[in-house]
């Protein structure tokens, strides 16, 4: 874990820069911007998923392919790369390998100083890529196929973003998405001082923040947004590789903007990136006892010996729940973009 500390400090440094971007005026003009996407789906069979740490949760098929989405922002002095990849987490070894590959092609343009890699935290993609005993225990060690798929996906997405750089600007918008996330530990939350709780309307964050990238020619290039929710609509019985609710939302957005083209194609790139999602669940029906259906949100246990307590919903099964949560978040994000496109059309007519 020691090696994580300098990495975290570095990420924090970049994150501060990122926050500065967020806090600046709503329209940030005159950048060079590039967006790119590449497939990162690893082995879809026989490999234990990363997330639930359940050794019998091995892949046996595919629900939704996973992708890496890259965004390059350059203000003429400095270049910054943000990547969001559909995976459970990102480790230092993945990052180092991506940087090594980028160095071969681009020299010192992309280094640990300006490349930030984030993962959506889906719990349904193949594990074994962290090179750390604790994280790779459930996969019984390193899985080269998982590692390579993620590294190659990230690298390719950055290459594509690099090749797509054009002049553009950035718009930042905030909205609210209701009924798409709940607090996983409301009893713990209630231990916070009342004076603090009184500052907030809800016991989880409902704000969606979106950065919209628009070309100098007014063509929409892509978006990155952040909404706090775990990509765990697909539960720990799922054995189909999936990007879960966040990946699904990306696919919906990209489909809309890319003239309904097939999944993973089209120039417009939309990342639904991870943010303050700790203890935030998408399973909005809340924790219930498996058989009695009784609310078990206080103790997380049920009276029977074998009866489990787990959260689900809002759909009738995990596939429907994934779709419902994805559509809710997508809808808010898409409305912002639609409003922007509308405004650009008006401007064009004037
Ligand atoms: C979608 O189709 C329209 C009309 O055919 C075209 O103007 C636009 O550039 C297309 N957009 C993308 C992202 O391919
Ligand atoms: C479950 O019960 C707790 C109180 O024991 C309550 O705060 C919570 O809203 C209930 N959840 C649901 C989904 O009914
Ligand atoms: C997972 O979802 C399926 C429905 O898709 C349900 O049958 C199962 O009980 C759920 N299990 C857990 C542990 O959430």
The helix/strand series, from N terminus to C terminus, equals HEEEEEHEEHHEEHHEEHEEEEH
Q: In what range is the share of β-strand residues?
A: 25-35%
How many helical elements? 8
Strand order of the largest sheet: 6-5-4-1-8-10-11-12
Total count of strands = 15
Bound molecules: 2-acetamido-2-deoxy-beta-D-glucopyranose
Q: Which class do the helix and strand fractions yield? A: alpha+beta
Helix content: 25-40%
Identify the overall geometry: globular
C-alpha Rg, in Å?
Answer: 20 Å
The low-confidence parts are: none
Give the CA-CA distance, first to last residue: 58 Å
* Sheet having the most strands: 8 strands, mixed
Mean pLDDT rating: 92
Q: Quickly count the domains.
A: 2
